[in-house]
Amino acid sequence: MWSQDDHKLLEALNPDAVLFVGDLGNGEIRFIKEIQEIKIPTAVVLGNHDRGNDFSGYQLKSQIDFLGEKDCSWSRKIWSSPPVVIVGARPCSAGGGYYLSPQMRAVFGPVTLSESIRRIVDSSLDTPGDLPLIILAHSGPTGLGSNAHSLCGRDWKQPEIDWGDKDLELAIDKIKEARSVDLVVFGHMHHHLKRGKGVRNTFIMDEKRSIAYLNAASVPRKGVDVNDELISHFSWVEFNEGMLTHVSHRWFCPDASIAYQEDLYNLQ
Length: 268
Ligand SMILES: [Fe+2]
Known about the structure:
- By secondary structure, the chain is an alpha/beta fold.
- The protein has a single domain, classed as Metallo-dependent phosphatases (Purple Acid Phosphatase, chain A, domain 2, 4-Layer Sandwich), CATH 3.60.21.10.
- The protein has six helices and twelve strands.
- A six-stranded mixed beta sheet has the order 3-4-5-6-8-7, covered by helices on one side. A four-stranded antiparallel beta sheet has the order 9-10-11-12, with no helix packed on it. A two-stranded parallel ribbon has the order 1-2.
- Helix 2 (about 30-35) runs parallel beside helix 3.
- The radius of gyration is 17 Å and the shape is globular.
- The N and C termini lie far apart (about 35 Å).
- The structure holds fe (ii) ion.
- Fe (ii) ion binds near residues 48, 49 and 138.
């Protein structure tokens, strides 16, 4: 849930851009309205919990319309400040290969797996090759492991399997034929595993393909520290001259100081 307190914290942090990986507010438009108020560059891909309860797609379409330019469903942003390309994947995914909910079909039509791949790949075409490319998705791609601890591994029932999105993996393969993909960031698969199985791996750097994968789904995003002070989670990414230089999970106090940081990657 995105609140006015989150808004104030974001303004204090003042990052160059903010990306939302979805599952924002169970289809309630008031959370989308808060996001619409953000003044820094913003890109959003909605999650499966944003699709709304009505099979007509009205709630989903309303959110997308309200987001306007900030929505990145099957589309892209080319920003000069910060200098980066954002390619949005299929919205409202629940993972598990490929499935379109009735709400998605109502809003976008009967989009097939191959059509979804085409839309993601097409969004990357003719983008400036000197800008880093970030793929923004709700669910991560298949191919990142088949254990419960994997970035997109199914943890809530046996067997433990790869629960990523097939269209996204195939799209990334295709995009890589033409240009670099620097970072794939997504949510959906909670960091804390079901049945007390511990914590998920949340970051992989594929050195061979030079792609970083980040699961940002720290749920709940808010908690308290040892002093009972409110803290809020953001995944934090830094680029320098087009190179990914830093990735971490950060928990911030309301005054924007860092309460706790888990480093995931630092360029040597
Ligand atoms: Fe989700």
